[in-house]
From TrEMBL:
One of the record's GO molecular function terms: ATP hydrolysis activity
Domain Hemerythrin-like residues, every copy: 637-775
Transmembrane segments: 25-44, 51-69, 81-109, 246-265, 271-296, 578-597
Organism: Streptomyces xiamenensis
CDD domains assigned to the protein according to its UniProt record, in alphabetical order: Hr-like (cd12108)
Any one Gene Ontology cellular component term annotated for this protein: plasma membrane
Membrane topology classification: Multi-pass membrane protein
Span of domain P-type ATPase A: 130-229
Keywords linked to the UniProt accession: ATP-binding, Cell membrane, Membrane, Metal-binding, Nucleotide-binding, Transmembrane, Transmembrane helix
Subcellular location: Cell membrane
NCBIfam families listed in its UniProt record: ATPase-IB2_Cd, ATPase-IB_hvy, ATPase_P-type
Family statement: Belongs to the cation transport ATPase (P-type) (TC 3.A.3) family. Type IB subfamily.
UniProt protein name: Heavy metal translocating P-type ATPase
SUPFAM superfamilies with a match to the protein in the record: Calcium ATPase, transduction domain A, Calcium ATPase, transmembrane domain M, HAD-like
Length: 778
């Protein structure tokens, strides 16, 4: 029979202090009085039993009076007034057993409420408790432990095994292995090579390493998350404020029903029974517990919501406005294709280019180096390295001068280079040219790719009740329209300035509750203008996080769909619990007024209602989506890694097809043989393993084999085309005895079609698996 009339908490890290001490003590005292009185009554000492039960009733009455007085001082009509009247009424009419039961239920109800809120805010408190407070700083005299406030950008810090990274910084001279689960929700160790940025609050899961601080404590990524978590609470939610208004009419109603029962029946016991069951606990408990449970579940998934009001507004949202770069796309360029001169392979070209680019900090250079690492290529040391801004990087690798960047002259390009430039224009890609000893030997095409989880995010948003999705971006119209088409967005507006984004958000708000999602400094005004601003906190700017109501601490845009789903479900559970509890309480009041429920039974009945309401509200802590088994998740990660390694096979199919297009294509036989070997030894075993291991595991999770049937059909087509390529090679080897194998003119056209078709099917199939399946295992 508790009620949240105590002062509001300052944040999720502070449960009511008296809830840790007073409620348990009250529960113990009233419980002992109830038990002792029952023993005395059973032994025939009725007077002694009544005395003990009176003591129990008074034990509950005294703090209840204090709670009411505190509520009145704050200008609120405390709902504990009903409990005070009920306790006083039991003493007046001699229902001492009922009085002790009410006192016990009052104490246990408040204790249950406090415990429920502590459980619901456990994940939010964990964020606060994990915040680092000191750092080990390297000085000329040694390593000193200093308060975190004394760390400045440029300081060299030592992070030992198991230590928390104190501030944002860059790794020095080694590879750091970090557990980022506090920020991302994913219990995985991630390697950060020298020079890579690491974020505060991640945990060193490897050997000791040193880092150079790039931010102070206040400016680090985790500090903003902590500030948001401290503000998170249920008090701001409209459905919770409804509970405050509930007391204004429920108290007079309870007194009216109680007085009417007494006046009509002439029995004061009925009036007391009505007061016993007349408690607004169902609404007062359900709303905050459900909302705080939703906040806690979101935090567990890497979504920090500023307060309960933001969570409830998110549950009402019908329009989502999305930035493009860094939100729907990765936010950094990645290699999409490698064009090659005759005699070069993609691995050889990337190794040479990355060996020079590893000494550059340019964003495109980092993309080439990352691609080389993804393909497990061993980079060579380079000498005489120089970088010319706007032109590129030059260095000597294995005795050859390698230049990576823009083309150095406008001489006539060979066919492969003209083809590469044409594809770059069609795809809106950047081109990095690689020259060896002054001769162009390859071109690398780079684009900012769509996030694997972006299409699934849009689909899940629509399933959660979002009616309209649109994109606002400062990028060019062509790539913006392509992203919008791939995601099925309702509208795309390109070339938008920060002011135009704000105007667009205001227009959307005029029609529906609007969410704005972004990651950059230029998105901050639009985030602040929206009903709910959502910042990509893992990779975005501090300004966007500061302006946001919701921060996604993991670099996954599908957490936005998780947040909306949680918000909708939490509000539904809060309203459902409140209405159900109120109906039960009102029904109990009618029965008590009719004399069908005595005070003692009414106390037990009301406590049962309270416990049912709390249990139902706590359902918001649990997810409704099926869980992926750890073994299946491991399979997803394994095959996703193999996809990255198999990009060489995809590139090789295009290279061989283009070789067949040059002159008569007869010289392309070595390239086709290499494709056949890669298909036989690497690609087909990968596809067969997916059919044998991954798809059955996914079918069990997705609800049947039909969910993976289209992917299996793609496997069949890939194998058919691979067999066709192999058959062409067998035909090429059936010449006259002693004659070298060669492709006959009548084979060229069909073989080229097979290779181009295989390239297209592989790219589409890989993209489908990465979007629909592999993103689940991240």
């Amino acid at each position: 029979m508790g009620s949240p009339d105590s002062p509001p908490s300052s944040g999720p890290s502070t449960s009511r202090t008296h809830g840790h001490r007073i409620e348990p003590a009250l529960t113990l005292m009233t419980g002992l009085c109830l038990a002792a009185g029952a023993l005395a009554w059973w032994a025939g000492a009725r007077t002694a039993a009544d005395v003990i039960w009176v003591i129990g009733t008074v034990t509950g009455l005294v703090p209840a009076v204090l709670w009411v007085a505190r509520a009145l001082r704050r200008g609120r009509t405390g709902v504990d007034l009903i409990a005070v009247l009920a306790l006083a009424g039991t003493l007046a009419v001699g229902e001492y057993l009922a009085g002790t039961l009410i006192a016990l239920m009052l104490a246990t109800g408040r204790w249950l409420e406090s415990a429920a809120e502590r459980r619901a805010t456990h994940d939010l408190r964990a964020l606060l408790e994990h915040a680092p407070r000191s750092a080990r700083k390297r000085t000329p005299t040694g390593v000193l432990t200093v308060p975190l406030a004394q760390v400045e950008p440029g300081d060299v810090l030592v992070v030992g095994p198991g230590d928390v990274v104190p501030v944002d910084g860059r790794v020095l001279d080694t590879t750091a292995v970090l557990d980022e689960s506090v920020l991302t929700g994913e219990s995985l160790l991630r390697e950060h090579p020298a020079g890579e940025l690491v974020r505060s609050s991640t945990v060193n899961g490897g050997d000791v390493f040193e880092m150079r601080a790039t931010a102070t404590e206040a400016d680090s990524a985790y500090a903003e998350i902590v500030r948001l978590a401290r503000q998170a609470g249920a008090g701001g939610a409209p459905v919770v404020r409804l509970a405050d208004r509930y007391a204004a009419w429920f108290v007079p109603l309870s007194l009216a029903v109680s007085g009417s029962a007494w006046w009509l029946s002439g029995d004061p016991v009925r009036a007391v029974a009505v007061l016993v069951v007349a408690t607004p606990c169902p609404l007062l408990l359900a709303a905050p517990v459900a909302i705080v449970s939703g906040l806690a579940r979101a935090a567990r998934l890497g979504v920090v919501v500023r307060d309960g009001g933001a969570l409830e507004r998110l549950g009402h949202a019908r329009t989502v406005v999305l930035d493009k770069t860094g939100t729907l796309t990765a936010g950094r360029p990645r290699v999409t294709e490698v064009a090659l001169a005759e005699g070069w392979s993609a691995a050889r070209l990337l190794r040479a280019a990355a060996s020079v680019d590893q000494y550059s900090s340019h964003v495109l250079a980092r993309a080439l180096v990352d691609e080389a690492h993804l393909r497990s290529l061993e980079l060579r040391p380079a000498s005489d390295v120089g970088e010319e801004p706007g032109r590129g990087v030059r260095g000597v690798v294995d005795g050859a001068v390698v230049t990576v960047g823009r083309r150095e002259n406008d001489d006539a390009l060979p066919g492969w280079a003209r083809s590469a430039e044409n594809r770059a224009v069609l795809d809106g890609a950047a081109v990095v040219w690689v020259c060896v000893d002054g001769t162009p030997v390859g071109a690398v095409l780079l684009r900012d790719p769509l996030r694997f989880d972006a299409p699934r995010t849009v689909r899940r948003l629509r399933a959660a009740g979002i009616d309209r999705t649109l994109m606002l971006t400062g990028d060019r119209p062509e790539p913006a329209r392509e992203v919008g088409m791939m995601l099925g967005l309702d509208a795309v507006r390109a070339g938008q300035s920060p002011a135009q984004k704000v105007e667009a958000v205001h227009r959307e708000r005029a029609h529906a509750v609007t969410v704005m999602v972004g990651d950059g400094v230029n998105d901050a005004p639009a985030l602040a203008a929206a009903d709910i601003g959502v910042a990509m906190g893992a990779t975005g700017s501090g300004a966007s996080s500061e302006a946001a109501d919701v921060v996604l601490t993991t670099d996954r845009v599908d957490r936005l769909a998780d947040a909306v789903t949680i918000a909708v479900r939490s509000r539904r559970i809060a309203v459902q619990s409140a209405l159900g509890g109120m109906i039960l309480s009102l029904a109990a009041m009618v029965l008590a007024a009719a004399g069908l429920i005595p005070p003692a039974a009414g106390a037990l009945l009301q406590e049962g209602i309270d416990m049912a309401v709390i249990a139902n509200a706590l359902r918001a802590l649990r997810g409704t989506e099926p869980r992926i088994e750890p073994g299946t998740r491991q399979l997803l990660r394994r095959f996703a890694t193999e996809h990255t390694e198999l990009r060489e096979v995809v590139d090789a199919t295009r290279e061989a097809a283009e070789a067949l297009s040059d002159r008569d294509g007869s010289h392309a036989l070595p390239a086709v043989r290499r494709v056949d070997q890669l298909l036989t030894e690497r690609l087909l075993p990968h596809e067969q393993a997916e059919e044998r291991e991954l798809y059955p595991a996914l079918a069990a999770w997705l609800g049947g084999t039909e969910a993976t049937a289209t992917m299996s059909r793609a496997h069949t087509e890939i194998e058919r085309l691979a067999n066709r390529v192999h058959t062409h090679l067998e035909l090429a080897g059936r010449g006259a005895p002693g004659q070298a194998a060669e492709l006959r003119p009548e084979q060229i056209s069909d073989l080229r079609d097979c290779l181009y078709g295989l390239h297209a099917v592989l790219r589409l199939h890989f993209a489908q698996e990465e979007e629909n399946y592999f993103s689940l295992g991240r």
